[in-house]
Amino acid sequence: MDTQAPSAGTIETDAAVRIRGLRKVYGGAAAVDGIDLDIARGETFALLGPNGAGKSTTVEILEGYRARTSGEVRVLGVDPAHGDLDWKARVGIVLQSVTESGAYTVREQLAHFASFYPNPRDPDEVIAAVGLEAKARTRISRLSGGQRRRVDVALGIVGRPELLFLDEPTTGFDPEARREFWQLIRTLKGEGTTILLTTHYLDEAAQLGDRAGIIVGGRLVDVGRVHELGGPDARVPIVRWRDADGTPRETRTERPAELVASVVSRLGGEPHALEVIRPSLEDIYLQLVHAAGADVHDDEEAPA
Fold first, then answer.
1. What is the pLDDT of residue 43?
2. Angstrom distances, CA of residue 254 to CA of 69, 238, 276
3. Distance CA 224, CA 230 (A)
4. What's the pTM?
5. Domain ranges in the chain?
6. Residue 20 gets which letter from DSSP?
7. Among 1, 5, 2, which Cα is nearest to 215's?
8. How buried is 175 (Cβ within 10 angstroms: 0-12 exposed, 13-18 middle, 19+ buried)?
9. Parts of the chain with a pLDDT under 70
10. Structural element, H or E, at residue 93
11. What is the distance between the alpha carbons of residues 228 and 286, in angstroms, rounded to a whole number?
12. N or C: which end of the chain has fewer CB within 10 A?
């Protein structure tokens, strides 16, 4: 499978995020090694990759939290290394784990953060959107881990950002809460918010992303619409079965029904352990990561 780094695409002048030749080096080792990428305004883009691939470093550079070694970066038309307060007010950030002071109630904290922005959302509407109405008067220190994560999300969207960074946003959510959160993201997208999502949940990327990029070893190995990642060959169905003597068989084919019929005819009956598998996003992701020689259990990036 071809793992050459893709072009940044055709999104240029009005991109919400524009990256050219981005590099970040720690002690001689490149955590980010020559990334080119455009993210359109209003797009939901999922950045995927194993731990240690360069996701967090890339996103932190875009957020203005980490200096880059070289390359050009523009976020909402501004170099994030020099973003002022007006620029920061246009950007919402949900980090992996940063729940604010537990001394305040949920509503007090949201109202306090809302006061920092020129056109914030109503705190009570945000509390309802993240499913914390019953906990609005509860001190944050008394919330469960999943509830605190919802507070993080609420703080990230209360300023009505043009661009929202979501770093593993549904960590600690139960399945029902995750699906409620997905609906919230769809609502934000419908309002024109650009969203950059990092997640280890491949179903989340498939549900929310317009496009996705897979980063391995500091390089983008594929970028495209979620349903096109890996190219056509990666999505060819797989037929698996066992012959009469128990020998396992596996064939990729564009015509799985025709193959199954021929196997049934040859064996004179239903094959044992018959499966017809259409590769999922997770399957394709793992193919690309393994083709790039990465270990999906690598450690996170080195700190600055």
1. 96
2. 46, 9, 11
3. 9
4. 0.80
5. 15-225+287-291, 237-278
6. E
7. 5
8. exposed
9. 1-13, 97-101, 294-304
10. strand 91-94
11. 15
12. C
